[in-house]
Design a protein that fits this description.
Layout lengths: L12 H17 L8 H7 L11 E9 L4 E8 L7 E7 L12 H13 L3 E6 L10 H15 L9 E11 L1 H14 L8 E7 L10 H5 L8 H11 L28 E7 L5 H13 L4 E6 L13 H19 L2
Parallel strand pairs: 3-4, 3-5, 5-6, 6-7, 7-8
Antiparallel strand pairs: 1-2, 2-4
Helix pairs in contact: 1-2, 4-5
Bound molecules: 2-acetamido-2-deoxy-beta-D-glucopyranose (NAG).
2-acetamido-2-deoxy-beta-D-glucopyranose (NAG) binds next to loops.
Length: 330
Amino acid sequence: MTRNPPTSPDLPCTLRFFLFILTFVLNTARRSNGTVNRPFLKVFDSKASPSNKRDVKTTDVMVDPSRNLWFRLFVPTTTTTTKLPVIIYFHGGGFVFFSANSTLFEGICRRLALKLPAIVISVNYRLAPEYRYPSAFEDGFDVLKFVDTENFEGFPSIADLGRCFLAGDSAGGNIAHHVAVMAGEHEFLKMKVIGIIGIQPFFGGEERTESETKLKNTLILSLEITDWYWKAFLPVGEDRDHPLVNVFGPRSDAVLGINFPASIVFVAGFDPLKDWQKRYCEGLKKAGKEVYMVEYPNAFHGFYCFPQLKEWSLLVEEVKDFIEKQSAAQ
Ligand SMILES: *[C@@H]1O[C@H](CO)[C@@H](O)[C@H](O)[C@H]1NC(C)=O
């Protein structure tokens, strides 16, 4: 008798239950006509106010009120003299869900700010399908320009803009990549982007990969869900070989400028997207870029939301090393 390999990780049942509920909520909020039931989602997407607790001070900074573009600034209060790197963070949620003040993502940024330590800037970019491509990329890039040129109130003097990293999970990892491409073609005054931290970045294409087929019904992500997200974010009528999705695919020119920085990419064994993420790393390598891939065999899509998992602590250590390495190379 042959046994099929497992298609889901071994998880504590409270965590499994939480994932089940989260999947149910996100699925119910997605309407079959391609729109989102925002009032329904609001009930479950709890928000955190800016605060000064647990050794991290947070403030919200407005960039452009006409499109409600703002970011949440996380400053660890445990160190006051050492210069800290700056991480510009893009939250996940399929380009469609959550915001910079969602409790789930504010927790991730708070923990990163404290543990690395680093100054974290979490971008509240506009969401699809109300705002499709390229709104999120433009919002991200405009925040970089704002941080570079405006001496805004509350920006700590210990922030080292010469050591800037773009980070994101899932759809946020896709945004980090594309914003890095835009940043590489721009002359900043002080800012220097020296690394990309891609946590299970969301890439894809028309082709179905082996991991997508094998893991097509996992919690949080299924093929039906990823297809829906792309449809919500892509320009109307476009397919998944658009270069925003299939970065090194048949329609991409795959030319990355000399200023495109080094990357670290986190991949999980039970993530249906893992084959696309591996191809992304191969594409970066072929383009002559420095890239480190870290794989956690027992992790699933979204593992980084759960600090109780050992992979979370491992990730923090890897990111720390990556930041040190790229900083030393300056
Ligand atoms: C979260 O952000 C939205 C604006 O994007 C705002 O309306 C809401 O008041 C914020 N909530 C908290 C608790 O900060």
